[in-house]
């Protein structure tokens, strides 16, 4: 029924919440901003970095935003050593889906630099036909990211699904006319995701493969 499976990255394929939160909190403190609560930072996971920073600190000016953006990137990519691991079953399930003929893609709020590094570290890069990052297009929940993926792969929206753990993922999918799958173990509580009427919800990543098998 579906041919193209589009995945969010952070909170859907990899458990990076702790590192994101710690890196943003440290960067803000380092630059003299008011302390950022963990829940507030968790809430912006999935947005592009400029959009996330402005959501956290609405009054921030552009020069200060760029400075915080740079310091966050430094802490996340270099300084912070909090482990980021693929969720259980992600690697094997993605390989099986690829072998079954599904086309795989990534639509993420990460920067291109950050995603390329993550794809190299996890060795998942060859599995994905196309990836799109927030610094290459508009941030979620704007649907442009998905429109671009669909156009470049020549895939009708009806043949694709968006798999994600935040409201931004599901809202983006709905706006693009793409079916959505809610992931319950990520950044946003499942009650929030259900408001966007996903096709299904999964509590462990391998459940996605079982659901697709049932459809087939």
From TrEMBL:
GO biological process: DNA repair
Pfam families named among the record's database cross-references: HAD_2
GO cellular component assignments: cytosol
Matches recorded under InterPro entries: HAD-like_hydrolase_sf, HAD-like_sf, HAD-SF_hydro_IA, HAD_2, HAD_sf, PGP-like_dom2
One annotated GO molecular function: phosphoglycolate phosphatase activity
Annotated PANTHER family: HYDROLASE-RELATED, PHOSPHOGLYCOLATE PHOSPHATASE
Protein name listed in UniProt: Phosphoglycolate phosphatase
Naturally occurring in which organism (per UniProt): Marinobacterium lutimaris
